[in-house]
Every structure is written in structure tokens, then in C-alpha cells.
């Protein structure tokens, strides 16, 4: 099966027209000594039924947020995806088209990008959004690169260890050959103290990057951060959770210059981490430094309103090594899903999703912390995630027991924060019910009893 | 049927009070919010998002979709983009909960099926590339390039070699120099010969102990196989450099020739092209890379490892360049690529390339009656024709032909790329098109080049909109809908 | 300024040099009508700030059309004393009057040596004719 339409007879006739005797002659350009000369060593072809059986069996070996109750977060969340999102994204005119190079036959995609850019500016309060990036982590790295391009003479970037560890790793990778100093402020109390931020930001600082809510789910003192950054002429970059903006103030209100976000929670499936949606928006002053595609409004020859890709001279296909980034495309389909999700929820739905998440997370947090085995690690206010410490230090057993009870209970922090090896990051979205939360707490309490028996 | 009234924006469709009751009531205790969050963390107002009811939303986006050409509706011979049919089984299977609803921080023992699939995909891509090890992490071809160049930089650093430049042909994709710059290299352009291949004399002039990597696209962007690739690789290796293969054009050589066998040290795949992931109006793609044994330790973390029957993520890679994105990779795209490779098997993949190359040669043969193809009589999976004579004789440009094709119901080829061909028209038909379609396309071009130039300059005539005013879009940028009363810059 | 009296770089910038009240040589720099025409439909220009240093043959700014970017190269060495800051909002001045209202920067020359490498009007005209062919 190879989805080839030409029949054997077609092929024969086509070869004849080309004056060739065999398909092999088509490849005369390839020297014999670099030809493979044997079949690829791959498993044999599968028909649709066999493939479906095989993939279903592989999929069946995995637990998922559909088979277990998911309290996992850390930058990827089990939020509700309205059916209308799947429906719109399944239109094959969207999902089997490509970058809208020919504007006249791509107005659907171009307007969809323009709608996305509009929705992201409404969400963040920024003036310009690009058409999207790969994911939240690479968007954060691109934002840092953008800030460095805005002030090329400044060679320091300041961030905090409360920013998603993988975002920081990606930034480090992107900066590997840039002769830039990356300063990470420690956050033993869950948030960075403004005094520590002030001590690290100087006239050489291109940007200051904070996550709000941060990786631990805590709220940072972003207004203080912004003032410190701006006092030194540095750009203030924030990485936000889009759902949180249903309730928290928009980054524009506290002085953000560039806003990035992981857009997965806006209607995109968990999919083991990708493809996701990198949101990147900024103040108008930095529009020409934005990486990625941009759709702009204009008119056609009949003076009808229409849309086109614009400011393309920023991009790699024109500016080559001097481009704002090497990025070629956007995450069109995921941006479309985010747009439909935002429009379906609307202002009230976004407030409701944010409020439900906060309420349920704080209920879960307090209920867990009400048990003697667990303590709340940080005092800072939290949004939809929180860190809980297992005073008996049995995080692995706890998670294994949670799994037995049907819960993907939390993300252990030891991998990134050895000091917090006895801690769990727990996320609670609007999808979690009180019964599920109570069930998790019961399960953890039972686990405690079991642990006591083992120790007796 | 297309609804001609359907170009309002969401902001214009919005009416105060419209609301979709999607979420449940709160089932936990509800203290005042001020007890849960500091006062300054609670926004006084709701977000200024549009208020649109679901029926309007569906009509809006459904109507918008009908303004697009797509692979499912039209022949889409966009050179360099491999716009082939996207098998529907892959969509269904990638959507299974065991793949689509898996959280990236689930314990490894709960995702053995997925890790097994990803491990097998690594192995299959290694076999197809003829290289040793694979990273599935990069999110797109361009990120794959960047990742591989960072791998090369780390490799040279470890060897104590200070190599500062990356060489790329003048026919290369713009991502090549942009990626090189991001990886800290400067780019040196290598000329092409009049036949469209790498100018080996010019390459030799730039090969020295500062040259880190030669980035080569093979088959190249003109659709030609670099016949001396083996010798080129030997020369580059002889001066201590590495060969990077831009795998954008792998659709031409699956099972026929392997980059590792012709001297590549690193390459990226574009699974959304070669292995038919839907292009999604611009993305998502993915950009897995394959490298030699020597370069494997530098690959990004994590990679999937196998121990007996157990699969796990190997994150303990001290020589790794680190991460290039969050989480594992574009798994949804990779599952589709896996399905595609398993559907085809070894013979099927070879058949893909054979038919892609047959279709391209057949179309080249039909088209050259009407438009010259400067670089020869045969090609691999794509070829580049030129409208330079049409322009000189009748004032008809590549852009005119591209736009007029839209009236004939075909998506346009890539135009004005590669930059080394004037008035370039780059055509990639792919294997999933029939001879009838290719004939119809060639005949359309035959008619177009005979048409009144004035008619062509104003084309397209039958599309939802005519040519947009790109100058206005760039001079007075309007990047978002501005609500009435807001002080925007709509002019 | 009259195009016949100016000197030209091969990269299509022009310069007209005068002596100011303090006796300094100050050159006004712009781009030629040929350049403006071949760039087509300019949409954006990026110019440096006054006080910046320029070097002969090095880029001091960029001019963009919809699908192309071109560097602007300084024909001389010196310090920028004035920038045509209104130009970016009035790009039509370049097509209407590139030797007058469409000037780009004024440079206080370090030395007059680089002027010797420039073309006079006749030689520049011939270069343009060759490029067009």
C-alpha cells in the first residue's frame, strides 16, 4: 500500500513517453556506489486492519488521562477540550493545507491566523502576537534571543529557578554560543525575592524572565520584577499560563514587554508533550524583532478587506543568516485549536475555568496538607498547582500507590530540585471533581497506613 | 458551497451576553476569592475576548475553511514541501487515548507502548538514513538543523578544534544560514555550477581548518542528485569537517540511497513531508535528526533506550547539548510517521520514491514544451522551470503563471526559489497524484503561457480575493482586529 | 542636490560633500534613483542615530521592500552628525526626490581619502546600464 495512483500500465506508458525501459533508469543520476542495493531492513507492510490492531495494542499498554485521573501538570495540563475544537480542526481544508504563500487561495488560514493574533493580544494585553512558535519552552528561548537583539550591547539574562526547568534548559541550549551570561536566582521559598532580583539586574541585563504562576504554581511578585527590570532599561519577559489569565491580571497591566506561553491548555491534547503551541506576543515597539510568521490585514485589487503574510523581511527565507530566527512555519493547526477554544469559552468561560481551577486546587492543597504526613512546601499564594512535601520521604511508593488507586497523582520534583526530592507537584484543573480530589486524598492516607505497617 | 458573506471577524460577530455553558458548577467549598489569592492577583474585569455562540463559531470557521486550497481538495505541487496525500488511518490512530491523552510526566512504566513505538521509530529512521543514532526531539526541520549544528559545535569543542564557519550552497534553503548563525557559526556560501550542482572548486577554496560543517541538500533544491557527493564528502572529511544533509528531499531516495552511505554525518527528516504528516496550515511538523556513532553522545536529551523488554528515557547523557524544546518531542506527528512507515514497509517506501520521481520526470517532460527547465532533462522528485523567456518576450512572470494557475484550480508551485534560477517555478508533484492530474496541470500551463499578459498580471480572477496589497500591509501594519472605539492604527 | 555633481559608491549610495562653518567636511549621503527604482515599493527604512560612527564600505542601515532587504553602505569614514528622521514616515520622498528630501544621513568626514574610490556621475551611469543588461 503506498497511495500511488498510477497503475502498472500508466507507469509503463509514462516510462515509454520518457524513452526509458525501466524505473531504475530514472535513478541514473545516482552513482552505483551510493545506492543501497538491498531492501531497507524494516518490518513488512501492514494493511489498515493489521496496523490498527498493532497501534491499538501499543496504545492499550499506556495509561492516560482518559484511563486514570490526572493530577499531573508542570507545563502540560488536562484541561477540558470543547467538542467544537475537534470539529473545526478536523476540516481538512485546514489540516491538509500549508503555509499561506498564495494568499488568494489561503484566506481561510490567513484570517484564522489573524484571528489567533487578535485573540492572543486580547488574552495578554500585548499589542502584537506572531502566528505561533513550536512550544512554550522554545518560545521563551526565542523571546530571550529577541531581547538580546533589541539591545545587542547587553549580554546578561536574569531568570529564577522557579521558572520551568526545561524552559531554562532550552534557553541555555539556545544561548550556548552567544557569549551571554545567564543568571538564575535561587528560589528556596518558592518565589524569587525582589531583593535578590534587584541584586542581579544591572545595566548589562538585556532581559529579565519570570514565570507567572511559576513552575511550583506560586505567584511571583511580578510588579516588583517589572520595576526592577525597567529601572535598568532591561526588557521584562513573562511566561504565563493562558488559563490563569481568566483571573490573574494581564501581563500588560504589570509592565511586560514580551509575553510567552505554552498554549497546550487551550484546546490541545496532552500528546506526551507535543506538538504544542508556543505563544509569543510583545509591545508594538519590538514588532520588527519578532520571530516567526505574521498575518497582516490589507485590501485586494478590488479594495476588499483581506489578509496576507507580512513583514517577511524579518524571516529566514529573505534575511537568511541575519533573520530574527530560523523558524520557518508556525503551529497552524494548534493555533487554530487555541483560537476556537478561546472563542468558545469567551470571557466568562475563561473566568470560570480559571476560578474553578483555583478553587479546586486550593481545596485539594488544604485537604492534603490537613493530613499529618503532608505539608505545604511554600507559603506563597498558588494558582492551580502546588507543591506538597511527603514528610515520610516515600514519594515513589506514594505515586505507585496512587497509580494502583487510579490516579496519576503528581510530578516528583527530585529530578530537577534535589532539595525537594521528597516533594510532589500536584495540578488540579476545572476537570477534576470533588469526588476525585477526595479519592486522591483517601488513597494517599491509605498509603500512609500501609507504609506504617511496613515500618512496624 | 462557499458562503460569500463569511469574512466577518470574531470581534465583529461578538455580541455581549452570548455564552456557551461548557463548564460545570463548582463542587468544592467557595470561600471569597480574596481568601485564596492576593487582591492584586485578581483582575477586576473579564478578558476582552469575543462573545460568540457555538453555532456562529462553527459556521464562521467552516466557512473560513472553504476559502483554502488544500491537499484534500486540490493538486498542490508546492516545490520543496512534498504536499502528498495524508492517510486518514494515521489521523485516527494518532488520536487514540493511549497516545493523545498521555501526559509527558507520566511514569515510564505507564507508557511502555508509546516508548516502544518511539524506540522503533528511532531504529527505523536510523535504518532509512544509514546513520547510527536518532533524536526525535526537534520540533521542525529548521530546529533539526539547529540541533545538529549544536551537536557539531559540541563535537568540535570537545576535540579542542576552533571551527567557525558553516558552508552552504547558494541553492540552500534560507533556514540553513539562519540555523548556522543561531549555532554561533558564520555562513560561507558555496557556488553552484551552471548544471546546478555544488561547484567543487569553490567548495575546495573554503575548506580549511575553520570549516566545521558543509550543509548540503541532496537531492538538491533543483531536484538534482549530487553525483559527486561521495567525493565531496571525502574532501570535507579530509579537512576534518562534517557533512550535514538537509533531508527535505528524502521523498526521492527512500530505500534507494542512504545519506549515511553517501557520506553524511548528520541529517534531519521532515516527517510532515516524507512521511506524510498533515501540514496543518503551517504546522505542526517535526524534525528528528540522525547522526553517526561519533556524534551520538551529543544528541539532545532524552532519547528512548531499551533494556530487554523494558523501554525507558535516557536522560543521563553528560556530553549532550541539552534540550532544544520542552518535553519529549512532537509525538503526535511522530506517531503518524510511524504509522506511515509501517503501512509501507521496505518495498512500499521504495515504491513511494520511484513514483515520486516518475511523476516528476513525466511532468517535467510535459512542461518543458512550454517552459524551459534550465538544469537538464531529468530530475529526482521535483524540478525547477523558469519563466525568464516568457518575461523577456511577453512580460509574463513566474508570479503571473503561479497566480493564473489558481484560476485553473491548481495550487501554485513554489516560485522565486531557489534564488539561483531567475523567475523560478519549482514543481513537486509527489507520488500520490495520477497521470491525468499531471496532464491537466501541464495543459493548463500550456494555455496560460499563450494568454493575454494583461489578463495574467491581474490574475487570479476567480478566487475569493484578488492579489493583496502587500505594500500597504507592510507599510501600515495591522496585525490584529481593533475593536470599535479603541485607539488603533487602522488607516 | 543635482545628481550630476554627486559621487557614487558601487553599492548605489551617493554623497555630496560641503564645508561647514567650522571648516569640517560634511557629506550628505543618500541612495540613487536607480537603487530606489530597482528596490521597488519600499516599505521600511532603518537608520542609525546621530553620533554613531560609520566606516567606508560598512553597513549603516537597511532599506526594505516587501520581499527584499538591502544594506545601506557608507561611502566614507566619519561621525554621523544628522539623520533624516522624518524619512521613515515619508518613504515616498525616496521615489519623489531621492537627491533632496530623501537624503539619509550627514557625516563629518574623518578624511577625504575614500572619496577617491567613488564613481562620478558618468561612470556610475555606465555601471547602472551594465547592471540592467
Describe it for me?
The complex is a heterotrimer of chains A (456), B (491) and C (133). Chain A has 456 residues and is an alpha/beta fold. In chain A, helix 5 packs parallel to helix 11 (332-369) and helix 11 (332-369) packs across helix 13. In chain A, strand 5 (205-212), helix 9 and strand 6 (235-240) form a beta-alpha-beta unit. Chain A is built from 13 helices and 15 strands. In chain A, the strands form 4 sheets. Chain A has a 7-stranded mixed sheet, sandwiched between helices. Chain A folds into 2 domains: 69-77 and 347-455, Alpha-Beta Complex (Aspartate Aminotransferase, domain 1); 83-341, Aspartate Aminotransferase, domain 2, CATH 3.40.640. The model of chain A is unreliable at 451-456 (pLDDT under 50). The radius of gyration of chain B is 26 Å and the shape is globular. Chain B is built from 16 helices and 12 strands. Chain B has 491 residues and is an alpha/beta fold. Chain C has a single domain (3-128), classed as OB fold (Dihydrolipoamide Acetyltransferase, E2P) (Beta Barrel), CATH 2.40.50. Chain C has a 6-stranded antiparallel sheet with strand order 1-2-3-9-8-5. In chain C, strands 4-6-7 form a 3-stranded antiparallel sheet, with no helix packed on it. In chain C, a hairpin with a 5-residue loop joins strand 2 (13-19) and strand 3 (25-31). At the A-B interface, helix 1, helix 2, helix 3, helix 4 and helix 5 of A face helix 2, helix 3, helix 4, helix 5 and helix 6 of B.
Amino acid at each position: 500500500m503506498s497511495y500511488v495512483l498510477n497503475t502498472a500500465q500508466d507507469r509503463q506508458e509514462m516510462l515509454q513517453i520518457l524513452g526509458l525501459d525501466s524505473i531504475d533508469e530514472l535513478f541514473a543520476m545516482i552513482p552505483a556506489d551510493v545506492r543501497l542495493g538491498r531492501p531497507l531492513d524494516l518490518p513488512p507492510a501492514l494493511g489498515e486492519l493489521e496496523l490498527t490492531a498493532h497501534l491499538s495494542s501499543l496504545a492499550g499498554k499506556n495509561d492516560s488521562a482518559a484511563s486514570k485521573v490526572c493530577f499531573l501538570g508542570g507545563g502540560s495540563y488536562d484541561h477540558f477540550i470543547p467538542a467544537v475544537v475537534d470539529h473545526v480542526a478536523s476540516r481538512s481544508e485546514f489540516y491538509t493545507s500549508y503555509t499561506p504563500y498564495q494568499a488568494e487561495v489561503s484566506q481561510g488560514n490567513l484570517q484564522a491566523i489573524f484571528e489567533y493574533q487578535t485573540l492572543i493580544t486580547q488574552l495578554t494585553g500585548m499589542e502584537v502576537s506572531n502566528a505561533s512558535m513550536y512550544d512554550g519552552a522554545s518560545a521563551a528561548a526565542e523571546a530571550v534571543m529577541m531581547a538580546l537583539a533589541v539591545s545587542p550591547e547587553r549580554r546578561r539574562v536574569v531568570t529564577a529557578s522557579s521558572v520551568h526547568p526545561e524552559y531554562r534548559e532550552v534557553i541555555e541550549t539556545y544561548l550556548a554560543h552567544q557569549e551571554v551570561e545567564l543568571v538564575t536566582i535561587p528560589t528556596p521559598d518558592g518565589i524569587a525575592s525582589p531583593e535578590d532580583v534587584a541584586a542581579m539586574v544591572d545595566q548589562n541585563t538585556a532581559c529579565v524572565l519570570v514565570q507567572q504562576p511559576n513552575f511550583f504554581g506560586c505567584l511571583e511578585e511580578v510588579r516588583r520584577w517589572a520595576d526592577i527590570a525597567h529601572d535598568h532599561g532591561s526588557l521584562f519577559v513573562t511566561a504565563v499560563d493562558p488559563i490563569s489569565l481568566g483571573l490573574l491580571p494581564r501581563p500588560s497591566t504589570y509592565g511586560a514587554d514580551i509575553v510567552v506561553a505554552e498554549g497546550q491548555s487551550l484546546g490541545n491534547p496532552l500528546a506526551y508533550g507535543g506538538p504544542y503551541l508556543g505563544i509569543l506576543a510583545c509591545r508594538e515597539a519590538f514588532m520588527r524583532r519578532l520571530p516567526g510568521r505574521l498575518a497582516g490585514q490589507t485590501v485586494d485589487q478590488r479594495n476588499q478587506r483581506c489578509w496576507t503574510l507580512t513583514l517577511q523581511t524579518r524571516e529566514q527565507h529573505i534575511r537568511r543568516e541575519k533573520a530574527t530566527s530560523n523558524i520557518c512555519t508556525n503551529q497552524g493547526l494548534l493555533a487554530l485549536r487555541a483560537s476556537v477554544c478561546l472563542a468558545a469559552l469567551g470571557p466568562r468561560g475563561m473566568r470560570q475555568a480559571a476560578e474553578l481551577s483555583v478553587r479546586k486546587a486550593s481545596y485539594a492543597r488544604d485537604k492534603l496538607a490537613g493530613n499529618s504526613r503532608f505539608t505545604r512546601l511554600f507559603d506563597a499564594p498558588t494558582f492551580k498547582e502546588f507543591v506538597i512535601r511527603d514528610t515520610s520521604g516515600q514519594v515513589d511508593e506514594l505515586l505507585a500507590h496512587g497509580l494502583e488507586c487510579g490516579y496519576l497523582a503528581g510530578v516528583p520534583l527530585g529530578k530537577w530540585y534535589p532539595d525537594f526530592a521528597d516533594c510532589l507537584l500536584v495540578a488540579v484543573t476545572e476537570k477534576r471533581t470533588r469526588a476525585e480530589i477526595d479519592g486522591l486524598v483517601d488513597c494517599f492516607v491509605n498509603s500512609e497506613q500501609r507504609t506504617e505497617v511496613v515500618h512496624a | 458551497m462557499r458562503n460569500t458573506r463569511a469574512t466577518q471577524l470574531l470581534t465583529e460577530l461578538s455580541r455581549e451576553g452570548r455564552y456557551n455553558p461548557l463548564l460545570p458548577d463548582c463542587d468544592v467549598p467557595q470561600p471569597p476569592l480574596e481568601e485564596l489569592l492576593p487582591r492584586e492577583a485578581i483582575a477586576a474585569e473579564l478578558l476582552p475576548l469575543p462573545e460568540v455562540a457555538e453555532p456562529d463559531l462553527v459556521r464562521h470557521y467552516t466557512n473560513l475553511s472553504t476559502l483554502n486550497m488544500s491537499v484534500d481538495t486540490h493538486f498542490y505541487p508546492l516545490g520543496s514541501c512534498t504536499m502528498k496525500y495524508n492517510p486518514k488511518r494515521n489521523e485516527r490512530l494518532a488520536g487514540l487515548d493511549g497516545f493523545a491523552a498521555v501526559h509527558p510526566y507520566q511514569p515510564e512504566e505507564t507508557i511502555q507502548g508509546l516508548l516502544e513505538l518511539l524506540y522503533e521509530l528511532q531504529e527505523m529512521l536510523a535504518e532509512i538514513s544509514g546513520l547510527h543514532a536518532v533524536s526525535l526531539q526537534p520540533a521542525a526541520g529548521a530546529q533539526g538543523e539547529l540541533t545538529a549544528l549544536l551537536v557539531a559545535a559540541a563535537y568540535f569543542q570537545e576535540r579542542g578544534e576552533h571551527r567557525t564557519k558553516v558552508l552552504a550552497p547558494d541553492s540552500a534553503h534560507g533556514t540553513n544560514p539562519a540555523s548556522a548563525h543561531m549555532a554561533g557559526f558564520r555562513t560561507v556560501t558555496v557556488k553552484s555550477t551552471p548544471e546546478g550542482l555544488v561547484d567543487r572548486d569553490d567548495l575546495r577554496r573554503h575548506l580549511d581548518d575553520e570549516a566545521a560543517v558543509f550543509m548540503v541538500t541532496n537531492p538538491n533544491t533543483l531536484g538534482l542528485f549530487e553525483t559527486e557527493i561521495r567525493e565531496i564528502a571525502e574532501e570535507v572529511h579530509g579537512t576534518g569537517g562534517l557533512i550535514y544533509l538537509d533531508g527535505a528531499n528524502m521523498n526521492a531516495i527512500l530505500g534507494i540511497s542512504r545519506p549515511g552511505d553517501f557520506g553524511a554525518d548528520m541529517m534531519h527528516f521532515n516527517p510532515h513531508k516524507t512521511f506524510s504528516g498533515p501540514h496543518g496550515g503551517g504546522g505542526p511538523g517535526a524534525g528528528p535528526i540522525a547522526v553517526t556513532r561519533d556524534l551520538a553522545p551529543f544528541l539532545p536529551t532524552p532519547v528512548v533506550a531499551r533494556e530487554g523488554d523494558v523501554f525507558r528515557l535516557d536522560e543521563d547523557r553528560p556530553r549532550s547539548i541539552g534540550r532544544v524544546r520542552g518535553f519529549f518531542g512532537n509525538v503526535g506527528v511522530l506517531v503518524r510517521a510511524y504509522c506511515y512507515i509501517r503501512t509501507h514497509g521496505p518495498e512500499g517506501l521504495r515504491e513511494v520514491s520511484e513514483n515520486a520521481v516518475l511523476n516528476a520526470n513525466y511532468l517535467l517532460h510535459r512542461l518543458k514544451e512550454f517552459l524551459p527547465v534550465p538544469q537538464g532533462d531529468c530530475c529526482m522528485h521535483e524540478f525547477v522551470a523558469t519563466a525568464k523567456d516568457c518575461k523577456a518576450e511577453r512580460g509574463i512572470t513566474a508570479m503571473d503563471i503561479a497566480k493564473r494557475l489558481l484560476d485553473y484550480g491548481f495550487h501554485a508551485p513554489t516560485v522565486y526559489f531557489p534564488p539561483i534560477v531567475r523567475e523560478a517555478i519549482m514543481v513537486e508533484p509527489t507520488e500520490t497524484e495520477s497521470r491525468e492530474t499531471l496532464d491537466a496541470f501541464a495543459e493548463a500551463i500550456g494555455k496560460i503561457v499563450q494568454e493575454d499578459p494583461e489578463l495574467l498580471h491581474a490574475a487570479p480572477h476567480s478566487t475569493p480575493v484578488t492579489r493583496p496589497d502587500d505594500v500597504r500591509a507592510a507599510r501600515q501594519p495591522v496585525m490584529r482586529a481593533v475593536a470599535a472605539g479603541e485607539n488603533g492604527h487602522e488607516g | 542636490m543635482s545628481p550630476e555633481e554627486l559621487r557614487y559608491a558601487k553599492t548605489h549610495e551617493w554623497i555630496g560633500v560641503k564645508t561647514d562653518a567650522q571648516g569640517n567636511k560634511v557629506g550628505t549621503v543618500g541612495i540613487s534613483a536607480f537603487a530606489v527604482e530597482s528596490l521597488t515599493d519600499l516599505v521600511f527604512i532603518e537608520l542609525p542615530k546621530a553620533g554613531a560612527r560609520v566606516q567606508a564600505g560598512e553597513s549603516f542601515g537597511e532599506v526594505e521592500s516587501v520581499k527584499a532587504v538591502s544594506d545601506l553602505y557608507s561611502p566614507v569614514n566619519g561621525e554621523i552628525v544628522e539623520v533624516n528622521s522624518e524619512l521613515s514616515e515619508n518613504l515616498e520622498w525616496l521615489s519623489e526626490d531621492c537627491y533632496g528630501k530623501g537624503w539619509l544621513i550627514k557625516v563629518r568626514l574623518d578624511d577625504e581619502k575614500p572619496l577617491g574610490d567613488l564613481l562620478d556621475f558618468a561612470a556610475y551611469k555606465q555601471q547602472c546600464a551594465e547592471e540592467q543588461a
